[in-house]
From TrEMBL:
Its EC number is 1.3.1.12. This is Prephenate dehydrogenase. PANTHER family: PREPHENATE DEHYDROGENASE, PREPHENATE DEHYDROGENASE [NADP(+)]. It comes from Streptomyces sodiiphilus. It catalyses: prephenate + NAD(+) = 3-(4-hydroxyphenyl)pyruvate + CO2 + NADH. SUPFAM superfamilies: 6-phosphogluconate dehydrogenase C-terminal domain-like, ACT-like, NAD(P)-binding Rossmann-fold domains.
Length: 362
């Protein structure tokens, strides 16, 4: 691939353009919003100058509701040899393109499974997709040349290609991406009018669960409007579980011992189902989830402290598999939770204590 046209200069489009430009592809930027286009160009994502003729690949990086129209327009003017979109919904745009008379032979739907809570070109990074799954949804109609161009795009962005059926993809992302966004927002909404005393008690748990609630509502309205049925199906199942859990919790308030036992069993069931589901989430590098031990270290909020603790772990010959941070309320300090292989726990614990670190129960 020597040339590409990226239509849409938001987070995903600009990140793709940055990755391609950084690997020697001449990238042309196209966006109805001139400010976003200029910003992306200023970041080094490509040129605002239109291409002289057809490019190798056109990447459509606009909201799902606009994908089909943007694809049809690009095909009508012969913008490229092949066309891919990178929207988060796949079945609908393909059907809409067919209804508009678009050529499905030279089009392939795709979805890089990466993003950030922030949107727009200023949030873009060239390494956004590194090591992340990138779904490709070819059909029997898809020309081999377009599939090869799409695979080259994924490789240049250093992502991992995953081939799926378009509608199966939409059901999958409803479960693992779209419904979690709404559930995070619903829980965070409980904090809007909560007492200040309650809000001051917020810890890492509520921060983890509500992280997605910081996302741009406008972007998510576009996404959810393009995949409402599968998302509603997931939420309907969650609503059924919620109703049962509420009933179980009410039973725990009863003076009747039998009802309390029933309530306990109901709550335990949902917690154990959660354990089982969480155990299926892939671990590092997409492998089976690993069981790590956690070492919690009290760290002051000073420059260089994190670098020092990682260096001390390295000197002890221990690899940090994962890390989390929990900031202390009202203090310039917090806990750094280091996840390590169980066999390395004793070694790292002794090494950190020897170097003066204060360890806490995680």
């Amino acid at each position: 691939m020597r040339s590409a046209l990226v239509i849409g200069s938001g987070l995903i489009g600009t990140s793709i353009a940055l990755a391609l430009s950084g690997r020697g592809v001449r990238v042309h930027l196209d966006d109805d919003d001139a400010d976003r286009r200029r910003t992306a160009a200023a970041l080094g994502a490509g040129t605002e100058t239109p291409p002289d003729g057809p490019v190798d690949l056109a990447v459509i990086a606009v909201p799902p509701a606009r994908i089909a129209a943007a694809l049809a327009a690009a095909q009508h003017r012969g913008a490229a040899r092949g066309y891919v979109d990178v929207g988060s919904v796949k079945g609908g745009p393909r059907r809409e393109l067919a209804a508009l008379g678009g050529d499905l032979t030279w089009y392939l739907g795709s979805h890089p499974m990466a993003g950030r809570e922030r949107s727009g070109p200023l949030a873009a990074t060239a390494d956004l997709f590194e090591g992340r799954p990138w779904v490709l949804t070819p059909t029997a109609e898809t020309d081999t040349e377009v599939l090869n161009l799409a695979l080259e795009l994924v490789a240049l962005c250093r992502a991992v290609p995953v081939v799926m059926d378009a509608d199966a993809h939409d059901r999958a992302v409803a479960l693992v991406s779209h419904a979690p966004q709404l559930l995070s927002s619903l829980l965070a909404a409980r904090l809007e009018r909560a007492d200040e005393a309650a809000v001051r008690l917020c810890g890492q748990g509520i921060r983890d669960v509500t992280r997605l609630a910081a996302s741009d509502p406008g972007m998510w309205i576009d996404i959810l409007s393009a995949n409402p049925g599968p998302v509603a199906d997931v939420l309907a199942e969650v609503a059924t579980d919620l109703e049962r859990t509420v009933h179980a919790l009410r039973s725990l308030e009863s003076a009747d011992e039998a009802k309390r036992e029933t309530g306990t069993a109901g709550v335990e069931t949902v917690l154990r189902r959660g354990n089982a589901g969480r155990d299926r989430v892939p671990g590092k590098h997409g492998t089976a989830p690993a069981r790590y031990e956690t070492i919690a270290v009290f760290v002051s909020d000073r420059p260089g402290e994190l670098a020092r603790i990682f260096a001390d772990a390295g000197r002890a010959g221990v690899n940090i598999e994962d890390v989390r941070m929990e900031h202390a309320t009202g203090q310039q300090a917090g806990l750094v939770q280091l996840m390590v292989e169980p066999a390395a726990t004793a070694v790292l614990t002794a090494a950190l204590r020897e170097r003066g670190w204060s360890l806490r129960s995680p």
